Amino acid sequence: MSRPVAVLRPEPGNAQTAARISERGLTPLCLPLFGIAPLAWTCPDTAGLDALIFTSANTIRHAGPLLMTLRALPVFAVGAATAAAARMAGLDVRATGDSDAAALIDLAAAQGIRNALHLGGREAAVGTGGIIRQTIAVYGSDPIEIDVDRLRQLAGTVALLHSARAAVRLGGAVAQAGLDRRALRVAAISPAVADAAGIGWDRLETAQTPSDAALIDAAARLAD
């Protein structure tokens, strides 16, 4: 019997990932560790800006109507899901990175970008410097309090990690529930997220690309 796959990402991504897991014939356990909400923000002066950097589809979901005031700028996005959300919003996606924010910034620089604006989460690791002239938080992600009995359902699952914050929070949740890390297997969306997860798990595998589909592929291999 296959292990359940624990989906820890916030909504609405949680339900979307859970549906994909079910389509693969696996059993999802929906346990969001964070909740996301939009933040008030002010559109900056666009004079001199030559690109937008997006590292999460949540940016497009929560930026609100102000985002359209920036639609003349080309978009560089981390991951296919972020790029698809940007296109759906009517933005011009110039390039899609298949690794992390640092690699995407390098890609944008190689294509001549010199003054980019990063829109993302309050907890995003992208700061100003290099080609990033300014970074603005358009949404926040806050931990959700979860009952210990619910956390104990993680035992015997494959836990999906979509972010380094989720990796750290999972470690704390496992300790809070009194579980042994060896009771879980972990699938991480990138090497950086795998590093944040640390050691001690029964097994840990990193997705071949930073996408939900590749992460689920990794989980399927661990679920057997």
Low-confidence stretches: none
For the secondary structure, the number of strands is: 11
Alpha carbon gap, first and last residue = 7 Å
How much helicity do the residues have? 25-40%
Strand content: 15-25%
Number of helices: 8
Shape: elongated
Q: Major sheet, described briefly? A: 6 strands, mixed
Largest sheet strand order: 3-8-7-4-5-6
Radius of gyration (CA) equals 18 Å
Q: How is the secondary structure organized here?
A:
Blueprint: E1 5-7, H1 13-23, E2 28-30, E3 34-38, E4 51-54, H2 57-62, E5 75-78, H3 80-88, E6 93-97, H4 101-110, E7 116-121, E8 132-143, H5 148-151, E9 158-161, H6 164-176, E10 185-188, H7 191-197, E11 203-206, H8 212-223
Parallel strand pairs: 1-2, 1-9, 4-5, 4-7, 5-6, 7-8, 9-10, 10-11
Antiparallel strand pairs: 3-8
Write a structural description.
By secondary structure, this protein is of the alpha/beta class. The chain contains 8 helices and 11 strands. The strands form 2 sheets. Strands 3-8-7-4-5-6 form a 6-stranded mixed β-sheet, sandwiched between helices. The protein has a 5-stranded parallel β-sheet with strand order 2-1-9-10-11. Strand 5 (75-78), helix 3 (80-88) and strand 6 (93-97) form a beta-alpha-beta unit. Helix 6 runs parallel beside helix 7 (191-197). The chain starts with a strand and ends with a helix.
